[in-house]
Amino acid sequence: MFIDEVKVELTAGKGGNGIVAYRRELKIEKGGPYGGNGGAGGSIIFIGDKNLSTLLDLRYNRIIKGKDGENGRTKGMYGKCADDTYIRVPLGTTIFDDDTKLVIADITRDGQEAIICKGGRGGRGNMAFATGINKCPDFAEKGEPGEHRYIRCELKVLADCGLVGFPSVGKSTLISAVSAARPKIAAYHFTTLNPNLGMVEVPDGRSFVMADLPGIIEGASQGAGLGLQFLRHIERCRVIVHVIDMAGVDGRDPYQDYLTINQELKEYKMNLSLRPQIVVANKMDLPEAKENLQRFKELLPEVDILPISALTKEHLNELLYKIADLLAVTPDFSLVEADEINEVVTYKFEEEEKPFKIRRDSDGLFVVEGEKLKKLFDMTNIENDSAMRRFARQLRTMGVDDELRRLGVKNGDIVKIFSYAFEFID
Ligand SMILES: Nc1nc2c(ncn2[C@@H]2O[C@H](COP(=O)(O)OP(=O)(O)OP(=O)(O)O)[C@@H](O)[C@H]2O)c(=O)[nH]1
Ligand SMILES: [Mg+2]
Predict the structure, then answer these.
(1) What mean pLDDT is reported for the chain?
(2) Within 10 A of 285 (CB to CB), how many other CB atoms are there?
(3) What is the CATH number of domain 161-334?
(4) Which residues surround ligand 2, an ion (CB under 5 A)?
(5) For domain 5-156, which architecture applies?
(6) Any residues with CB less than 8 A from the CB of 383 and at least 6 apart, and which?
(7) Is 215 in the pocket of ligand 1 (CB under 6 A)?
(8) Considering the domain 357-423 in this protein, what is its CATH number?
(9) Which tens digits make up the pLDDT trace of 103-142?
């Protein structure tokens, strides 16, 4: 099975906690704070690997957790930072945020790295909080939680050229004739359900990757047949080799076939009909083919069409030279649509939203929530009074108190912050 889409849940490592410790040494009676910082949590990093061709590994590994940083130690020592977790994926893997549906990364090069989930920062130990005023703080910060997100990985076949055409026109026969790929070949439609890749060597030493794609039918761009699934694979091909059954074995008109397929390519979102295209007349070994080709040329004199027979291997080298020549002058194109890239930028911008929100629940309690606030809360040791006083100060600085007053909070009202509730006192 060709696996090209996997959803995965990622949680990066949590930062280690900072600790509270004091200096205790012979002859030093009131040693100051001595608790070290926690180490950073490990990030989850995706890395391109040219030796992989499927997302199979991810399929069996749907929940990935980063490693946690070590807690700080006494004597002011830092906890160890956790190692990052590397996930190897094939080239051509696009990673989407499954909640926002936006592109996070597009892995196209061997060794290319993308941090998909960032590890949490280590919490600071009490030593780090010592100031001129508070020389001996008795609290520390907990480690920051690692980022958490649901992603969707999509692998589109990275081929230089893709064989496109109606079912049973001989695409699989052609790729087996020119490469080591051995897809199933049969006289029924949709024999090929998943793309097959083959490395093609041109007699002059050049080489390229050819993809045998499942057949397209009318309405594919609207989802007919196996429609969109196939067209998506063609997006990645720099050159399209349009294969036509010139013998019309299935009773269709080769000229109509040509128009229909191009219409489907045009209607697909990236307008694939603009891709460089080589038109191939296959099955020229059959008697009906000659007459049909003659008619095709009369109707479409501007189309350069190459007659071949994939079965008897006629004119195949000519085709390979033609493809290699066209690839040589066809630039790489962006694998992500322009509007998708723009959206990535907006997404980052939205991230910087207000750090908290306040609402009143059905019991009239004030509920303060928000992602940034949650992080701060998670890093606070709520059992420690000093740590809680510090948290209260942070809330004030963020503007939570002002906002509560604006909403009409009175002395004695209950305010809830995640798992913590307190009485508001002005
Ligand atoms: N006579 C003749 N038959 C061919 C030629 N190429 C392919 N065929 C036959 O056409 C039938 C379909 O061939 P495939 O290669 O499976 O066609 P396909 O385009 O991959 O079809 P799907 O995978 O269903 O989209 C098979 O019976 C082949 O033997 C050719 O050049 N000449
Ligand atoms: Mg096939």
Answers:
(1) 86
(2) 14
(3) 3.40.50.300
(4) 171-172, 191-192
(5) Distorted Sandwich (2.70)
(6) none
(7) yes
(8) 3.30.300.350
(9) 999 998 899 999 999 999 999 999 999 988 888 899 999 9
